[in-house]
Amino acid sequence: MTTFLDLCRSAIGADYVVTDDADMASYLIDWRRRFSGNALAVVKPANTEEVAAIVRLCNQFRVPVVPQGGNTGLVLGSVPDDSGTAIVMSLVRLNRIRAIDTVNNTMTAEAGCILENIQNAAAEAARLFPLSLAAEGSCTIGGNLATNAGGTGVLRYGNARELCLGLEVVTPQGEIWSSLRGLRKDNTGYDLRDLFIGAEGTLGIITAAVLKLFPQPKAQLTALAAMQTPEDALRLLTMTQNHCGAGLTGFELMSDFCLQLVSKHYPQMRPPFAQDHAQYVLLELSDNESEEHAVALLEAFIGDALEAGIIQDAIVAASIAQSKALWNLREHIPLAQAEEGKNIKHDISVPISSIGQFIQSTDVQLQQQFPGCRMVTFGHLGDGNLHYNVSPPAGDSADAFIAQQAAVNRVVHDSANRYGGSISAEHGVGALKRKEIRDYKSAVEMALMQSIKQAIDPLNLMNPGKVV
């Protein structure tokens, strides 16, 4: 492979073809540090033309390509296998915001742009880019689109797919396809944009995108409500939507055990109530009229929910600092889980109306098969996406419990499927769930996916071993 690597160095510069084991290490290990692969090299092109040049060389020498953004994924989608035959293509140098159009309400950004930087650039232009997730300080928009990321704003704004109007993609043959026109209507054939979004780099490499922007809301209010059951949370969701309509932008469910973990490992963070409650909902209301209007709406439906017995208590953030404190409770749940020790993560979705039944029945099944296991249940109730994670019984060996992961997964995923759900809502499939999805997708669906992969990437060089 010396000739291949030399040609790569000629194409993008020797400094950007990394082969030293120590220098490559951070690109080869997954975010949870559970798996480490090997690679021929890590290459770091600076622009779309350099990406295309490297892909053409990979075609010539039959070298697989693993595209990588911020490497924050949870399903082994952005790391190579252990064969050492692939290159990792890091897109972090493609980090320019090419244009912002405040009349068209669009931003054109390269794939390596950090999500938080995109949010900030939109804010500087008095606009909102609403995609928001815990890894926004390090994940990239290319990875967000490749996995069709969700986050906390899906209820109002949709997944990453709904926030993208056009793409620039390097195909498996090293050609450049661009639809960076910012059109909201273009009914001229197959929607190739939607084909590449969510494909996890298996059909081509996203190098840039046109993103939707929105007017900055006049007010954003945050409230934390306490209740007894997930069914109460669903009743609150319906009531809030009836009161606020599209103004409801976030609706996050958190169990008491989730916040117990946060308080245990981050003692400065505690729910602001005098007593504990079984379930909590963190909700966010955005208003384009005024703060006074937003406050009146919020106070009205909280009052109605208290009177109806749907919720037992509630607090409305009176400042930005209080709002951040409430969101910190939600965002520190995964961090607290990591501090608690190894656990088995799930990213499932079911129809919103079935969430209460799913939680109740799945909790029972897991306790029957794995007595004492602890469910860490939280997520985006407003769009039906739960992070239904399972920790070992207190005091038990984490490694022994993790050894039963396949059996735990089977209970959770069978239950999600029984309720008409999905085993991957926003994290993707990657290598982690590649075999498992065959248990839940029809033969027709799998055959169609494999046909698309074969037609677009016949040499199977684009992120092989992932998704299909």
What does this entry look like structurally?
With 468 residues, this protein is of the alpha+beta class. The protein has 4 domains: 2-90, Uridine Diphospho-n-acetylenolpyruvylglucosamine Reductase, domain 2; 97-215, Uridine Diphospho-n-acetylenolpyruvylglucosamine Reductase, domain 3 (2-Layer Sandwich), CATH 3.30.465; 219-334, Alpha-Beta Plaits (2-Layer Sandwich); 341-433, Alpha-Beta Plaits, CATH 3.30.70.2740. Helix content is 36%, strand content 19%. It contains 16 helices and 18 strands. It has helices at 2-12, 21-28, 48-61, 115-124, 141-146, 154-157, 192-196, 230-244, 256-265, 291-307, 320-331, 333-340, 355-369, 398-402, 405-418, 443-456; strands at 17-18, 41-43, 65-68, 87-90, 97-101, 106-110, 127-128, 164-170, 176-178, 205-212, 214-215, 219-227, 248-255, 279-287, 313-316, 348-349, 374-380, 385-391. Strands 15-12-14-13-17-18-16 form a 7-stranded antiparallel beta sheet, with helices on both faces. Strands 5-6-10-8-9 form a 5-stranded antiparallel beta sheet. Strands 1-2-4-3 form a 4-stranded mixed beta sheet, sandwiched between helices. A hairpin with a 4-residue loop joins strand 17 (374-380) and strand 18 (385-391). Helix 13 packs antiparallel against helix 15 (405-418). The protein is globular. The protein starts with a helix and ends in a 12-residue tail after the last helix. The mean pLDDT is 95.
